[in-house]
């Protein structure tokens, strides 16, 4: 089972980092294929808690080769900070490979991210402010800077000049900011060149060769299906393809090499930033999920919006990604509820709609139709076999499985590395 994609099924923060870490010891390469340091993955190993942003979570496992592939946007300063912080804690980061074709986030992308959000006012997306959108915009606009450009000062200067030409007019005349000098950007990027050089590789070639040699490669998606720029709740999305298709374009490994698609899905739903979220709760149940699930952003610390499980969203994810297995996380957070509502369909303008509506305005005012399931009160954090879960918890999982479009192969029952029970081998 050599090529596995692992993605988020909802609006992010499903626990992808922990799921990747779970598979870590059985894979040879972990590849980040989209997004950048907008991601935030918390992995708890014993007493140690790691927060990863730009680096794939597989970096925490000895022997794994972590890869930042071409689809990622790289803030090089952040990259070195993260590497240093992990090194200082004894993590071996020496194997990291970075694609020569990955795009670079510079200071003008960060500045533009912040000023454009401010200009949007009430219509703002609630981005992480890391420069992700502007860096991808430059890539699509063909004025982006790639990692390989940093090793050729002439080319770099030309490209930075080209990129800043229009942006400085915008910054000064529209946004009332100071112009950014070509030299400061170029010198900043050049200062990283020698440290970066040994990590840079043709990662598409490396990964294809590894697969041919029978190695196991895990593609770890950042963000999630409903934040995907094509399939998510546009414009309230991130600027990359966070769905399984993004693993192919974002890495140079062809779709027909991918054997398995694992989607991580929470036993309820959360979202950070603006945009539609039909099952969102504004009452004490929402507060219960937030405080018990510790739903605060790993990257920005913002409180996450919380709501019940949305089965049409899970089914949509199963379909768009070709999900073979779900990893259901945070089941333990629901312990103590008397009943647990699950959204099984929506009502849109008085009509029952069973699938995620294609029209954004319909989704905006879709009213969830709930089915109620009995809760349980026993502590389940120590349970390691499905049959040992309280009957009500088993029934809840089986009901979700029946309505979500694929089997639930593993279940998270706590933040710890070991707090997971496996029903079907994810790599077998
Ligand atoms: P990611 O962005 O998908 O990697 O997820 P985050 O790390 O942003 O958010 C998931 C949070 O839930 C982290 O704090 C994890 O430590 C925690 N977590 C993961 N799985 C479980 C679980 O099964 N139960 C509980 N209680 N916490 C979990
Ligand atoms: P992980 O990988 C949750 C959200 C932001 C905002 C929108 C666009 O930890 O699941 P961006 O900075 O990407 O342009 O912001 O996307 N967002 C996330 N929400 N988890 C994430 O990553 C996210 N990455 C971006 O809150 O609504
Ligand atoms: Mg996260």
What does this protein look like?
With 428 residues, the chain is α/β, with parallel strands linked by helices. The chain has 3 domains: 3-98 and 199-262, Adenylosuccinate Synthetase, Chain A, domain 1 (3-Layer(aba) Sandwich); 103-194, Adenylosuccinate Synthetase, subunit A, domain 2; 264-422, Adenylosuccinate Synthetase, subunit A, domain 3 (Adenylosuccinate Synthetase, Chain A, domain 3, Alpha-Beta Complex). 31% of the residues lie in helices and 20% in strands. The strands form 5 sheets. Strands 9-7-5-2-10-1-11-15-19-20 form a 10-stranded mixed sheet, with helices on both faces. A hairpin with a 2-residue loop joins β16 (339-348) and β17 (351-353). α3 packs across α4 (132-141) and α5 crosses α6 (182-190). The N and C termini lie close together (7 Å). The mean pLDDT is 96. The structure holds guanosine-5'-diphosphate, 6-O-phosphoryl inosine monophosphate and magnesium ion.
SSE topology:
Blueprint: E1 3-8, H1 16-23, E2 29-32, E3 41-45, E4 48-52, E5 65-68, E6 73-74, H2 76-88, E7 97-99, E8 103-104, H3 107-120, H4 132-141, H5 153-174, H6 182-190, H7 193-196, E9 200-201, H8 203-212, E10 217-220, H9 245-249, E11 260-266, E12 269-271, H10 284-292, E13 305-307, E14 309-310, H11 311-321, E15 325-329, E16 339-348, E17 351-353, H12 360-364, E18 367-374, H13 391-404, E19 407-412, E20 420-422
Parallel strand pairs: 1-10, 1-11, 2-5, 2-10, 5-7, 6-8, 7-9, 11-15, 14-16, 15-19
Antiparallel strand pairs: 3-4, 12-13, 16-17, 16-18, 19-20
Helix pairs in contact: 3-4, 5-6
The chain binds guanosine-5'-diphosphate, 6-O-phosphoryl inosine monophosphate and magnesium ion.
The site of magnesium ion (MG) has 6 residues, from loops.
